[in-house]
Amino acid sequence: MIALEELRSLPVADRLRLIEDLWNSIADDPNSMPDSPEVIAELRSRKTRFLQQPNSGIPWQQAKERIHCVFHPAQAPDKLSRRLKPPPSSGS
What we know:
Blueprint: H1 4-8, H2 12-27, H3 37-52, H4 60-71, H5 78-84
C-alpha cells in the first residue's frame, strides 16, 4: 500500500487524477455502496403502492419520453408537452 506521505508529495494534478480514478472505481461497482435506509423504505413503499394498484404505473418507454420532455422541452412532441405543462393560473 502507498504511504500517505508519498501521496502528499505528488503534484496536485496527479493527486486529483488519482482521486478521479478511485472515485470511478467505486462508481463502476454497483455493489460498492449500500442503499440508505431511506432509499430502501421508499422502494418498499412504491412496490406496495404498485401491488395495490398495478394499473397505476406507466410503461418504461412512456416514462422515458416524459423524462426526456422535462429536460428537452423544445424536442417534445406537442401532445406530450401539453400534458406536462401546468395549467394556466386563473388570473390575479
